[in-house]
Design a protein that fits this description.
Layout lengths: L11 E7 L4 H9 L4 H6 L6 E4 L5 H9 L5 E2 L9 E3 L12 E3 L4 H7 L3 E5 L21 E3 L11 H15 L6 E7 L18 H21 L6 E7 L4 E2 L5 E2 L5 H4 E9 L7
Parallel strand pairs: 1-8, 1-9, 4-5, 6-7, 6-8
Antiparallel strand pairs: 2-3, 2-12, 9-12, 10-11
Helix pairs in contact: 1-6, 5-6
Length: 271
């Protein structure tokens, strides 16, 4: 189990949210061998099943950036990894790094981290006042239609931006890099040629596509130093179960999400 007090300040932080990704989709895609790059970063090559804090993007990410990441699906509560100081904190344990800040993004910035958001869905677009709230927490934010939900190659464009951020990173400065992956959000039937409707299978195909691009980022990261990697879905998606479709609803397919926290060591320095 990771103790954030031993990591924050010494490691870069990568936080990736796979928008709308169901836990069973993530698990099945790993077991089918379709996400080999993710498998290398996941603890023991597996996702953990957790419960999200919100049924759609805005409340889920508001909670995440406040330190309330998805919680274990069972009764055990090992304590949060990150938190913001509050009057009471029953889930703050010895492993929890507590920021004296309104959110973890501001908290990391206060510790000298460069904070960068690479948006995907509309809540990160900056195109409306509401769409500026979440990216407005960061020192730098990037979004374009090419990184959004309507571009089938959105993850490639997001990773291209992420690699540029890494190239520009000042030696010795820590980085908090956040990506909201749009490809797993509807419409993802485009990843199954000939299909015209989104489905469980097309979300699997979308995640397999995402993996082909994230591999480039994972490969480049160690050259910049050691990393704390957080990955999860913000919520899931119903594909007709019990008559439900979509998200923003109280259904198990929406509340159950994949989660992972891991450490990626830096590359050995050569002198």
């Amino acid at each position: 189990m990771i103790n954030a007090n031993e990591i924050i300040g010494t490691h870069h932080v990568l936080f990736v949210t796979f928008d709308s990704l169901r836990y069973d989709v993530a698990r099945a895609t790993v077991h089918a061998g379709r996400t080999p790059h993710l498998e290398k970063v996941l603890p023991d090559g597996l996702w953990e099943e957790r419960r999200t804090q919100g049924s759609f993007t805005l409340p889920a990410h508001t909670a995440f950036f406040s330190g309330f990441l998805p919680v274990p699906s069972g009764p055990s509560r090992p304590g949060r990894l990150l938190a913001c100081y509050a009057m009471r904190g029953t889930t703050i344990k010895p492993r929890t790094y507590v920021f004296d800040a309104p959110d973890i993004v501001t908290g990391l910035s206060g510790l000298g981290y460069r904070t960068v958001c690479i948006g995907g869905v509309g809540f990160f677009s900056g195109q409306t006042k509401l769409g500026r709230v979440l990216p407005g927490l960061f020192q730098e934010s990037y979004w374009s239609p090419e990184t959004g939900t309507d571009c089938p190659d959105s993850t490639r464009h997001q990773v291209d931006l992420a690699l540029k951020v890494l190239e520009e990173q000042e030696p010795g400065q820590r980085l908090f890099l956040f990506l909201n992956i749009a490809a797993t959000h509807t419409p993802h039937h485009v990843y199954l040629p000939g299909e015209s409707a989104d489905s469980w299978e097309s979300q699997c195909a979308a995640l397999a596509y995402v993996d082909t691009q994230l591999g480039r980022l994972f490969e480049a990261m160690p050259a910049r130093g050691p990393w704390l990697v957080l990955m999860c879905a913000d919520h899931g998606e119903a594909f007709g179960e019990d008559g439900y479709t979509g998200h923003g609803i109280a259904h198990p397919s929406v509340w159950s999400v994949p989660y992972a926290e891991s450490l990626v060591p830096g590359a050995p320095s050569h002198t």
